[in-house]
Amino acid sequence: YGDGNQKIDYVFKVVLIGDSAVGKSQILARFARNEFSLDSKATIGVEFQTRTLVIEHKSVKAQIWDTAGQERYRAVTSAYYRGAVGAMLVYDITKRQSFDHIPRWLEELRGHADKNIVIILIGNKSDLEDQRAVPTEDAKEFAQKEGLFFLETSALEATNVETAFTTVLTEIFNIVN
Ligand code: GDP
Ligand code: MG
């Protein structure tokens, strides 16, 4: 998980957005450090984390930005979106409201970000199946209509977190190559 001293071929900025408490910081902790915490405090001061991975023999540094508690509607500044080539739009499968807010987040994202930004919709906390409030089909349908990738993840169980990032990063890689 360290960046080492290898030569970097690409740096891709990816932003995490979505309501508070959906698991954005834990998804990032899982991807960047393979860590998870059940009582996660807002990671104040930390703007982004990086992890370098290899895609088609090139080294790609993913620079993943976390909102650090600015999740109120329109509180995320345009600086946050600037230069982003990927976005992960996260809701919690056990909180219907967090899914109902996705169109707002998408609108805000499309208003601020590059029009070619690669977006993945993520339904997090898939380990809490017994508390599910958002059917997979609803999200899949929404993603299809809006042209987004879609996956359900569990930061806790490390399910699909790696796949979510590699999906976005590989798509970005293919666009720039
Ligand atoms: P953020 O506000 O979107 O950054 O959300 P956090 O990453 O701080 O997570 C909010 C709460 O949900 C914390 O208590 C996490 O431990 C918990 N959480 C995050 N991801 C998962 C997950 O995949 N499954 C479960 N069961 N809890 C999670
Ligand atoms: Mg957070």
Question: What does the secondary structure layout of this molecule look like, with pairings?
Answer:
Elements: E1 10-17, H1 24-33, E2 48-55, E3 58-65, H2 78-81, E4 86-92, H3 96-100, H4 102-112, E5 118-124, H5 136-146, E6 149-152, H6 161-176
Parallel strand pairs: 1-3, 1-4, 4-5, 5-6
Antiparallel strand pairs: 2-3
Overview features:
177 residues, alpha/beta, six-stranded mixed sheet, 32% helix, binds guanosine-5'-diphosphate, binds magnesium ion, prenylation, Ras-related protein Rab11A, membrane
Account of the 3D structure:
This protein is of the alpha/beta class. 32% of the residues lie in helices and 24% in strands. It is built from six helices and six strands; from the N terminus they run βαββαβααβαβα. Strands 2-3-1-4-5-6 form a six-stranded mixed β-sheet, sandwiched between helices. Strand 5, helix 5 (136-146) and strand 6 (149-152) form a beta-alpha-beta unit. The longest helix has 16 residues, at 161-176. The chain starts with 9 loop residues before the first strand and ends with a helix. The model has no long low-confidence stretch (mean pLDDT 91). Bound molecules: guanosine-5'-diphosphate (GDP) and magnesium ion.
